Structures
1.
Amino acid sequence: MTLRLARRTLLAGTASLAAAPAIAAGRALAQPSTGPHGALDLVVAARAPTTPTGLTLSGDGRMFLFMPRFDEKTVFTAGELFPNGRVVPYPSEAANRPDPARPEATLFHVPNGVFDRTNRLWLLDAGLMASSGAPVPGAAKLVCVDPGTNRITRTIPLQSVVTETSSLNDLRVDVRPGREVAYITDQGQTGEGALIAVDLASGRAVRRLAGHASTRSEEGVLKIVEGRVLLKRAEDGTTSPIKGGANGIALSPDGARLYYTPLMSRRLYAVATNALLDAAQDDAAVARTVEDLGEKGLTGGLSADARDRIYLSLQEFNAIGRRDPDGTVEVLATDPRLIWPDTFWITDEGWLYLSSAQANRRPEHNGGIDRQEPPYAIFRMRIDAGPA
């Protein structure tokens, strides 16, 4: 791997979140760049109730955030973000009230959501009521929302492909002629991860590569965020290592390869998508299509553009990186306000959006003290390509 620092890297110093550019009334639409090509702009300071790990935009520019239900303080898990920073429950407040008696009809723990090519919003519900513990029976699911009516139109259960230690994390949906497929990462609460593929037409879901080296948390990986080693830190002062299997996920432009990486791993992997849903292939056959693409740094979210370049949330450096198809990794921008950069979204107009989740400041990493400082920064950068 070759690592280089882009000349356009932007260091924003200690600029306040209050310096977000003015945005016209209405939805949170993409705005003209306030800096040169490649500069990192603060779009909005989101007054989310807790850690916003997920981010997506509709075709007409509406912005949505997703806040996993790490604890009982999470008042809603899916929300729409408005230009003034306000975040409201989406698709409704009622839908965001988890009800174990109606697990298929309410939202429990949504780490991410994405729009497909037909502008349908897909929500990934891990079905959890906290950061640990078994998913609520029947609560793990994919939920499709029509943004035109703000109504849920379909629910696909995932009960058959989750385990008692599952922690579903990220989602990509590939809709094109002859193919409607969703791909999901399960990072696992013990670091034993997996990939999940879902045929959206039939609802058939399969769990793949469970326990494979490419989906499993690597032992001994040291992750430093904001100058501090990331650990689980209990109130009594005891510590334990972070474990995180398959986490970030991205699709190649032709949909033939799925890129992914464990949270606690510096390596990037790819697998052939045609193998994932093929009932004739067992896990060993799927594993033979896995490629180790080498070092890419410690990341959370991934995204690919139309030129098959993969964007990297470089959490140790408060930075955005990009991996070219030849394996070269470039740091595009750094900013001290990029605290735990997480999920990317690329628009058709060539805007790269990114959430700053502050997950390292959560109580479980700080002896029970919540060190998050809302509002949460949402950034964007102009790039020279559209989405994959």
2.
Amino acid sequence: MEELQTQKNTALEAIEAAGSLDAVEALRVDALGKQGWISQLLKTLGKMTPEERQEKAPAIQQARAEVADAIAARKDALENAELDRRLATETLDLSLPAPDEARGTVHPVSQVMDELAEIFADLGFAVKTGPEVEDDWHNFTALNMDEHHPARAMHDTFYFPDRDKEDRAMLLRTHTSPVQIRTMVNEGAPVRIIAPGRVYRSDSDATHTPMFHQVEGLVIDRDIHLGHLKWTLETFLKAFFERDDIVLRLRPSYFPFTEPSVEVDVGFEIVKGRRVLGGSGDAPGHAWMELLGSGMVNRRVIEFAGLDPDEWQGFAFGVGVDRLAMLKYGMDDLRAFFDGDIRWLQHYGFSPYDQPTLSAGVGAPA
């Protein structure tokens, strides 16, 4: 037992003198590890007689407890000393800016949607939305497209196998025009709305995608004529592109839901390889570009909506939101809008603080 006492005292002195946590850990392993001297003594208890265990076990257990307590105390003392040293020497310069955190951006399509809403709200238009899964009556029939119209073909339109309660075919809407029908049916006249949203067509290349964004406008009132349509489009495009020299050319066209129908061309020039809208397309160095379709609402469409076409007239127009964004902000491939490439979004995206306003300019810098 004297030998045990000597070993214990030697271990306690070594622990007290240890100058680092590594040294304390080495002493713990030497005494209390699997092959440590105290652990070996504890193993010998199993080979002793009951009388010998009763005599020697308390001393061994006492030695084990004292060494373990000494190790814990020395470890705490060294850790506290290290903490005091760091508190005394380390500093934090609060004058330095905080590190930049990753920030998201507003997608150009969302930005342009907000710009359109801001411009047309100033012109007295309300924003209306509708379901993206439509029935063929709202999407085609009510818009004067009979059952043999080419737009109803399977290779142009995404149909669902199910039909609605009225046995009408269901599909992903091909335009936002059904919102116009629903608004006239539900609210009557007069009407002054825009209908932005996602639409779907079976088409895909550098300038077309199966899903894209569209905004359509509708005005229904008394004594409406093409002059109102042209003024509205000129005012809208000048505000959107933030140029006063936007020049329009209206060409006769055909759409089943408008009569007469007109394609709207805009004058532009090429500047550093990019189309820049402005000026007459007949001016030197300029040309005309088709931008949107429009016309006076067909009498049959007004009748389908439950209104009297002899009392109510109106105009409608439609344009791709993605195309507007490409022209205004210089993108050249529609497919990049939907790739989700963070580099593209960081380059073309907008800060959430750049809210478009007519007073500050709807074209907030990216």
